[in-house]
Amino acid sequence: MNARDTAAPHPVVADLYGQMHLPVICSPMFIVSNPALVLAQCASGVMGAFPALNARPQSLLADWLAEVEAGLAAHRQAHPQARVAPYAVNQIIHQSNDRLEQDLAECARHRVPYIITSLRAPGDVVAGIHAWGGKVFHDVTTIRHAEKALEAGVDGLILVAAGAGGHAGTLSPFALLAEVRRFYDGPIVLSGAIANGAGVLAALAMGADFAYMGTRFIASREANASEGYKQALVQASANDILYTPFFTGIPGNYLKASIVNAGLDPANLPAPDASNFGTTRAKPWKDIWGAGQGVGSITGVQPAAEIVAQLRGEFDAAQARLAGRTFA
Ligand SMILES: Cc1cc2nc3c(=O)[nH]c(=O)nc-3n(C[C@H](O)[C@H](O)[C@H](O)COP(=O)(O)O)c2cc1C
């Protein structure tokens, strides 16, 4: 039997479902995620998140946290019946992140409800986050990293499967999720090219508790992305995405169009050894646009609230479709 064959959700999941309109956690995206997007996401009933590093200089983080909290409080007051989801802040656990201690101290002051950690196992920071009542979801691409994160005491795992925007794994979501569920019955968030409501339902059917969605929300009015980037997402399909370690040293998915705009040939990038990373003046994330294979579901640039409403409609339609299929 799998670690989670019972119908009742894990208590952390049940608590979140009670505050959500749809089981979606919006991924934090470097440069792209900002307080306006996070507010719109949370107010629509899905969890919003931004990387702490997007608030520059560091002192701006306090303002961003205050802005999100004030916005959510005002929304709750104006709409007492609405489901308003909690927000998350992403912390990059890596020696290159020299702001980590300061950023965590700011999050402690604001008692940020969810911290999403990425890159290294968050061993040293989990206890501090728990001390202020925060929960830690850690993002992993392999079974070994999942095990290490659980040893570190995290409250949930984010499985970044093949096809996800930005730094992504290579494992099929079917394989990765099934293997993790064999030893873990806690909260699982699944990502990798989930870009419509049927995909959200599919993640739940597979045994995840939430879908993790990034790329879909870059094509929102609120996202901090250029109009060119947003329109390129509308135009693109899965075949227009390139998986390469060339730009950051870690394999990730990017829009081929932005690589061409930078004067490079996506089909002939130099070999991915460290000496090549500096050979282009194009800045990853700013000029080289991250995007997952789910881009084909993006047909326009919409306000985030409208995206969530559309996802909910698609989720309900997929559920109704399945209800009509019974097997003797
Ligand atoms: C443009 C872009 C920037 C990203 N930046 C971050 C980041 O700063 N921190 C992080 O943990 N993940 C980052 N991610 C990865 C996302 O957290 C997530 O794994 C991904 O968006 C999910 O796949 P999807 O885009 O196909 O929905 C980024 C993804 C994109 C597309």
TrEMBL record:
Its EC number is 1.13.12.16. SUPFAM superfamilies: Inosine monophosphate dehydrogenase (IMPDH). It holds the Pfam family NMO. One of its GO terms (molecular function) is nitronate monooxygenase activity. It comes from the Bacteria. Belongs to the nitronate monooxygenase family. NMO class I subfamily. This is 2-nitropropane dioxygenase.
